Amino acid sequence: MVPSSGPPPPRSLRDYALLADGERGALVGPCGDLVWLCVPRWDSDAVFAALIGGPGWYRIAPDEPGVRSGWYEEGSLIWRGRWTGRTGSTECRQALAYPADPHRAVVLRQVRAVDGPVRTVVSLQLSAAFGDTPVRGLRRAEDGSWTARAAGLHLRWSGAPGARVEEEGGRPLLSAELRLEGGGVHDLVLECSDRPLGPPESAHRLWRATEDHWRERVPDGFRGALGARDARLAYAVLRGMTGTDGGTVAAATTSLPEGAEQGRNYDYRYVWIRDLCYVGQAVAAAGHHPLLDDTVRFLTARLLEHGARLRPAYTSAGGPVPGIRRLDLPGYPGGYDVVGNRVNRQFQLDVFGEALLLLAAAARHDALDDDGRRAVRIAADAIAERHVRPDAGIWELRDAHWTHSRLICAAGLRAAASDCAAGAGRAARWAALADHIVARTAAEGLHPSGRWQRSPDDPGCDAALLLPALRGAVSAADPRSRATVRAVAAELGRDHYLYRFRHDDRPLGDAEGAFLLCGFLMALAEHQQGRPVEAVRWFERNRAACGPPGLYAEEFDIVRQDLRGNLPQAFVHALLLESAVRLAEPPGGGLGGLRAARG
Questions:
Q1: H-helix or E-strand spanning residue 564
Q2: Spatial distance between the Cα atoms of 92 and 80, rounded to a whole number of angstroms
Q3: Interhelix angle for 350-364 vs 290-306, to 10°?
């Protein structure tokens, strides 16, 4: 039985579906509860914060017991939630209107009685600023829509003229009942904008535009990939998380804990340059799709603006990431609530190598313009200037001479020298610098066993060290590459899931969840090593680490079979897409046309 009033109870992360339009994202639970939405942009304050214990939600569900299910319409983030009860089945089709207006979020929800008469309960609690600012001026307009203001936002809800105004937790709550006969359809449209709203648009027109735009923006070109339907959904997720400025946010949410009461709660509603490059390279592996151009455009703009001072992360509009601020909310179970991130205090060397790898991938598709070639030179010069400095590394830990950071820079330099038409002199300098970085890193960062180690002062094994061979810093046939693959699988693998590194003497699963990004990297590494069966085992195991909607978080708890961390995590979807495409190619011999590496 779904409660008809009161805040929605928290659900397992694996049960939430994502609605997204590039500028913001919403999470919908299995019982028809929309519990997360920030307006107008990804990193704005939430108007629906029930996911993290705050006020604000939007519930649509039949008022009777039933069996819940749901699925995405092919090639889109249009979610169909279905409820099958004793008297009949009900569907709620829902999406954020697409194409998006950066200033206005439009939540489309369409209720349909699949068979038999149904009674559906609707409740809407509008909030703002994570609940800090009350809604004011709530009234019903002459056309039957409800309007209000809150924290500079203009709000309008159409489709429920007979709703009642109640109170829940000291805040206004709109509630209504929908009674539909078999085959009946009812539309509800919610608009939230930081600008005055114009005349309402018809639900039919908004739905038609949304369907058309998803059809145009998500290619039907993954038929040869492993798990082709999941690969296409991964592309749709990445498309929905990429804004008009070309940046892909790392995740749609903040503060979802990576482990209960472990203090690892972060705000990932920003564009990490490294993650953006993973997205672009994954798309490039699948072909020259518009999402590749978007990632290159965002990256190029940031490099031209900041040069060697490129920040590790930006807002989706290209601005600075704000510092951390605690929220006075209960939090998702096991966590606490924060917004902002301290990432901009860090120097992350590997982002310059990843930038070169993305720009080189674009060049191989003849998709690099003059600004892009300038960005290549800027990134290469930054590596030449800064490769001897300690950095925070891929996992954003203490500053050190991380082996992964330096080798990824070497990989980027090799790719740029080979593919970016830089001229013979410049290409030779880049290739020579790559050789120098690899030689120096080998002198300082090679374990006595012959594998790469984390840093000169940390002999540990790290799953990130699979990447240098995958990206061409050194050959896949290099004994150091082969030793690293063997060691990572043996020391960090469990049941074909992979952990990042060993934190301490505790069992791996006690320290953190399996890292799904790393599981897909291992699939690629095994494929590159010429072991296609083992590669598919890794791929399929990690592909299964999602809930019914097919979304992935950063980590997966193997014992509890649940997701950990913010949702959905863009880089996991990117590596699923890349793995699905690469593993359909003949095994061995490098990836994506990268030239054989020396060193």
A1: strand 562-564
A2: 6
A3: 140
- What single-letter amino acid sits at 411? A
Which is nearest to 20 in space by CA: 80, 98, 88, 120? 98
Retrieve residue 420's tokens: 């970016």
d(CA 509, CA 496): 13
Distances in Å between the alpha carbon of 348 and those of 219, 290, 360, 433, 566?
A: 33, 27, 20, 19, 21
Residue 5: what pLDDT?
A: 62
DSSP per position, 309-345: G--SEE-TTS-PPPPPEE-SS--STT---EES-GGGG
Q: Which of 392-397's residues contact partners 24+ apart within 8 Å by CB, and which partners?
A: 392/312, 392/346, 392/347, 392/348, 393/348, 393/349, 393/350, 393/464, 394/274, 394/348, 394/350, 394/464, 395/464, 395/500, 395/501, 396/312, 396/343, 396/346, 396/348
Q: Which residues of the chain have pLDDT under 70?
A: 1-5, 259-263, 589-599
> Tokens 């990804």, residue?
42
Q: What is the rounded CA–CA span in Å between residue 441 and residue 402?
A: 9
- The H or E element spanning position 537 is helix 532-543
The pLDDT assigned to 261 comes to 55
Angle, helices 273-286 vs 290-306, to 10°: value is 150
The contacts of residue 68 (CB under 8 Å, 6+ apart) are 30, 31, 81, 82, 83
DSSP-based helix, strand, coil % in the chain, nearest 5: 35, 25, 40
Task: For residue 153, give Cα distances in angstroms to 44, 96, 133, 164, 194.
Answer: 11, 17, 11, 22, 5
Closest alpha carbon to 265 in 1, 539, 28, 554: 554
Instruction: Output the pTM of the full model.
Output: 0.96
Residue 544 CB partners (closer than 8 Å, separation 6+)? none
pLDDT recorded at residue 510:
87
Phi, psi of 524 (to 5 degrees): -65, -40
What is the rounded distance in angstroms from the CA atom of residue 478 to the CA atom of residue 442?
A: 12
The predicted structure's pLDDT at residue 593: 35
DSSP state of 52: G
Please report the pLDDT score of residue 592 as a whole number. 37
Backbone φ and ψ of 61, nearest 5°? -160, 145
What does the pLDDT look like over 460-482, one tens digit per residue? 999 999 999 999 999 999 999 99
